[in-house]
Amino acid sequence: MFTERVGQIIFFIIPVMIIVGVVNAIGRAIGAFIGQTLVSNSLLETQWYAFSLVFLLGAGYALKYGEHVRVDVFYSSWTPKRKALIDFLGAVLFLIPFSIIVIVVSIPWVSNSWAILEMSGDPGGLPRYPIKTMVIVCFVLLIIQGISEAIKNLAVLTGAKDQLEEARHGADIAI
Q1: Where are the domains of the chain?
Q2: Among 76, 116, 141, 158, whose Cα sits 20 to 30 Å from the Cα of 151?
Q3: What value, to the nearest 5°, has the Cα angle with vertex 84 and ends 96 and 80?
Q4: Is residue 92 within 8 Å of residue 149, measured between CB atoms?
Q5: Angle formed by the axes of helices 129-158 and 96-115, to 10°?
Q6: CA distances from 163 to 86, 157, 166, 170, 171 (A)
Q7: Interior/surface letters 138-162, b for 16+ CB within 10 angstroms, e for the rest
Q8: Per-residue pLDDT tens digits for 100-147
Q9: CA dihedral 64, 79, 156, 144 (to 10 degrees)
Q10: Residue 174: exposure state from Cβ atoms within 10 A (0-12, 13-18, ≥19)
Q11: Prediction pTM value
């Protein structure tokens, strides 16, 4: 449910990103034509922030729906249990530990950014500390979704998912 809410947030960020991108492109084209600067650094950075938010917040959402990168040439022909085993091991051995490492390494970087209230190096640019914080948020969300996926895959491996589906199917018939 939480991941769904994050997906809804992304749903609203994407049009903002597109609109800001179009305004930037049109502003630069018209500005070049008339010899004036019509696009500010803050507008350019807003587009960059929106893209970053879509990517960072969308990582856990993509994981939930299996939209992340895989070697589908092999994966698509595997049995559900083999897929579950690979996904379980991938989450437990790679995704979760890597996410923890990124969080630990990022904390001093983000803390320093907050301590100095880091701003963009460009005139009229936006603060950097909020977007840097989203790196940690992204990997926390990935850990949460990774644990969820590991539990689901463990249920497939142990047969608990089949039992749950049978129980649900039986309940549907009884109603």
Answers
A1: 2-174
A2: 76
A3: 160
A4: no
A5: 160
A6: 21, 12, 5, 10, 12
A7: bbebbbbbbebbbebbbbbbeeebe
A8: 999 999 999 999 999 999 999 888 889 999 999 999 999 999 999 999
A9: -20
A10: exposed
A11: 0.81
